[in-house]
Sequence to fold (176 residues):
Amino acid sequence: MRKRTQIPDQTRYEYPRQRAYRLLCELEVDRLPVDPWRVAAELPNVHVCKWTELRKNCHDDPLLINRKGADAKTQHLRGQSDYLIVYDDRIEFESYQRVRWTLAHEIGHIILGHLVSFEATALCSGSLTEKEYKVLEREADTFAVNLLAPMTIIKRLPAIKTKADFMSLCNLSGEA
Fold:
């Protein structure tokens, strides 16, 4: 059983960067843009589901994605090592890039242990303070950017001269 700790006071930027790079190496990702669906599929305990499929099968919104206006939610299945990422596929038509980012972000929460390592999230993430929530969100964002746009590789590409080149190569929006 993993010992649960307190959420850090500050965002650990180096840790999510290293974890993203390690995952890219472990999965032998060798091209850009990185496909977060493929990354999730390669993780044996991660399952991805569209919100519309979940709603159709459950006849409800069990993770409250629609009610809360969330892009996605990851649920750790208690008593198991499995995770379910449910993403709002209705935004896929608006912004495929946003869905890619959202999936990478949710994978980050899993890889960084956010759902099981900390006392506050293992019990109920609704009990997080705003500061704790921001720390975990920044770490997941840091993971996502390093998974989808690994600077250790991009710096070595002479063809990347502009922001537009970077966005095109990594299939990222300007917001990301």
In short: The radius of gyration is 16 Å.
